[in-house]
Amino acid sequence: MNKSMPLPIDIRLMNFAATALVVVSVSLMLAGGIGWLLQHPVFTIQSITVQGEVTRNNAVTLRANVMPQLSGNFFTLDLKRARDAFEAVPWVRGAVVHRDFPNKLKAVLLEHEPLALWGDEGSSKMVNQQSQVFEANIEEVDVDALPRLKGPDNQSALVVRMFRELVPIFGAVDLRIDQLELTPRGSWRVLTDSGAQLELGRGNEVEVAAHVKIFFRTLSQIAARYGRTPSALAGADLRHKDGYAVRLRGVTTLEADGKKSP
């Protein structure tokens, strides 16, 4: 029975070296080919397809804001950076960006739907239906149709919840909230479209809403006593523990000057 003799060590080293050279050569060729492929002009981003909510933006606006922020081609483009570029465009609330082979991007956009103006007069901030504060050109909305909400930006969700809780309560007595403010001291203040200012005091939306409902029930009785309705409200302070102060337009509890005692 013939037994094969092991190859000498020098021959085995030569075979290993030859194999290694082949592997390295093939790897270099593949790397060069991949590099050439990645840099080929055919994969340069040529166009962007936009879908979703685009009522406040157009192709020109998007191209001007997004394209300068993009770098790389179909394979090397950073999708997160591309998404951030879309979301930096005014009115864009969110974006989902996909590659579209071989040289396109597809973006699906969500836009801000303003619920109210946010902050002091002159501010370009608004708050959307999702309680997010954002900045955009307020001249693009009907400012007169939007209420104004105030408070710290990080408390916007709380202010929106309170607003939504109070709107139907005020509406039930034919009053419309023109402004709702969470003051720096944590108290709530309402200004109606008729100019009445109400100090509501502190509390969460459930507590404040319950207090306001009781106030309006009593207000209806007081207003009726003077032949008026709650819409005649000029101002109220509900911060008192055991009662409240109220003013009605055209009603006074002060004596006329001519009737005062000498």
Determine the strand fraction and express it as a percent band: 15-25%
In DSSP terms (H or I, runs of 4 or more residues), the helix count works out at: 5
CATH class of the largest domain reads Alpha Beta
Helix content: 25-40%
Distance between termini?
145 Å
Uncertain residue segments = 254-262
- The strand order across the widest sheet is 6-5-4-7-8-9-10-11-12
Mean pLDDT: 86
Number of strands: 12
Derived from helix and strand composition plus strand pairing, the structural class reads: alpha/beta
From the structure provided, what is the oligomeric state, counting identical versus distinct chains? Answer: single chain
CA radius of gyration: 34 Å
| CATH architecture field of the largest domain | 3-Layer(aba) Sandwich
According to CATH, the fold-level topology of the largest domain is Rossmann fold
What's the name of the CATH homologous superfamily of the largest domain?
Cell division protein FtsQ/DivIB
Overall outline: elongated
Order of helices and strands: HEHHEEEEEEHEEEHEE
Largest sheet: 9 strands, mixed
Domain unit count: 2
